[in-house]
Specification:
Largest sheet: 8 strands, mixed
Order of helices and strands: EHEHEHEHEHEHHEEH
Oligomer: single chain
Shape: globular
Number of strands: 8
Number of helices: 8
Strand order of the largest sheet: 3-2-1-4-5-6-7-8
CATH topology: Rossmann fold
Mean pLDDT: 93
Number of domains: 1
Length: 287
């Protein structure tokens, strides 16, 4: 393996919306792209769309449900079997729900898909990321999280009940998970910086996609009536974060529309970021 080999990106939630646009743009740039998605039909349609836009591109689609950690572990193993390098991991998969769902592993589904799944996938792929950072130009190996400005509506992590079983609201669970994305990015930047891995996160804006298809009526109405952008717009920011020299410096930052933005104060709490990492490890160890 050497630094001139074809660059490889993993894009989760790539069967539609922002993830699909991002995977297509990277394939058009000549990257090998390993995609994940939940629905077999949408994955097949997305793969066909990417191949039509980027003939000859190296594309793989892996299917799995990111609310289940056993599925995330399986997909991580499949990724490691497909490639000997990983330059960029884009943790895009997530979403909102219309009510409280508890997974087979006793995890609230919003927390599972939006936070624990990308946490676990990143952890499982860390050996591959470190290996690639050892041969790639400095700052080129990156982990990017898709968060949301909704994080600002969460005053802080609910440490006594991260699943919010005792006082669940769909919006509250989503906003807490998006706060977790930023805290995770900050702690990952601290822990992985010495290995040459750059962690950044971003807010995509309100997008015309199927994002809210599993949300409650209020969320679906909000998205349908909001002034929304097409998925290509935030995808351009994700591709920029994956490739631009500026995004390969000063890790742990939050971006919107290819510009650094200031997250809410609670997202800058490094003690909370460390605690969230430890709590996440405990949850996963118990499975």
């Amino acid at each position: 393996m050497n630094g001139t080999e074809q660059q490889v990106a993993v894009v989760t939630g790539a069967s539609a919306g922002i993830g699909l646009s991002t995977a297509r743009m990277l394939a058009e740039r000549g990257w090998r792209v390993i995609c994940t998605g939940r629905d077999a039909g949408r994955c097949a349609e997305a793969e066909a769309e990417i191949r039509a836009a980027a003939p000859g591109a190296r594309i793989d689609f892996l299917r799995g449900d990111f609310t289940e950690m056993k599925e995330v572990r399986r997909i991580a193993g499949e990724i490691a079997a497909l490639t000997s390098r990983l330059d960029v991991l884009i943790n895009n998969a997530g979403g909102v729900r219309d009510k409280l769902y508890v997974t087979s592993e006793n995890i609230e589904a919003t927390l599972a898909a939006n936070h624990l799944a990308p946490f676990l996938l990143t952890r499982e792929l860390m050996p591959l990321l470190r290996k690639t950072a050892g041969i790639a130009p400095q700052g080129n190996v990156r982990v990017i999280a898709v968060s949301s400005s909704g994080h600002a509506a969460c005053p802080g992590m609910n440490w006594d009940d991260l699943d919010m079983f005792g006082n669940f609201t769909t919006g509250g669970a989503y906003c807490q998970a998006k706060l977790a994305n930023i805290l995770f990015t900050r702690e990952l930047a601290r822990r992985a910086g010495a290995s040459g891995i750059i962690a950044q996160c971003m807010h995509p804006g309100r997008i015309k996609s199927n994002f809210a298809s599993h949300g409650d009526q209020a969320m679906q109405h909000y998205m349908e009536n909001a002034q929304t952008a097409l998925p290509d717009e935030p995808a351009r920011t994700l591709v920029w974060l994956a490739t631009a020299p500026e995004a390969g410096r000063n890790p742990g930052r939050y971006f919107h529309d290819m510009r650094e933005a200031e997250p809410a104060a609670q997202a800058l709490d490094d003690a909370a970021a460390r605690r969230l990492w430890d709590e996440s490890e405990k949850r996963l160890a118990a499975l």
